[in-house]
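Marked as duplicate of an earlier ticket. Keeping the data here for the record.
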Amino acid sequence: LLHNDSLRLALEGGSALALTYPGAPLVLRHIAHQVMLYAAKQQLAQEALKAGGRAAAQIQSYFAAQLARRGLAVNAARYAATRSVLGLMGPALWVWFLADLGWRAIATNHSRTIPALFLLAQIRLTRVESPARAF
């Protein structure tokens, strides 16, 4: 079952396992944290705009609210894209790993098969009365 490239097999299985179980939730949690951070910044900037104050502070609060809104939109899109990619990559890596493992399990070992075929052919040739009847 395990050939010379067992390290590659371990890496394939390990990457599928890492992406499915601890990897994806950590990445998604980090991006969700960024989304919440920008949402909080936007809320603070909007509250500062409502409070009023001097014109310069109001303009600065307005630009801060716009930047926070843009950051919120970018991080929300990043979260959705990452979730979609991880949702596709996890099962794809598992299918690839299991298909490779199955192929290794049923693959023919030619170093044993070919000598056995030659042995059977020699036995058949030696048991025939005349070589002309072998064909």
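See parent ticket for discussion. Residues 9 and 100 are 8 Å apart (CA to CA).
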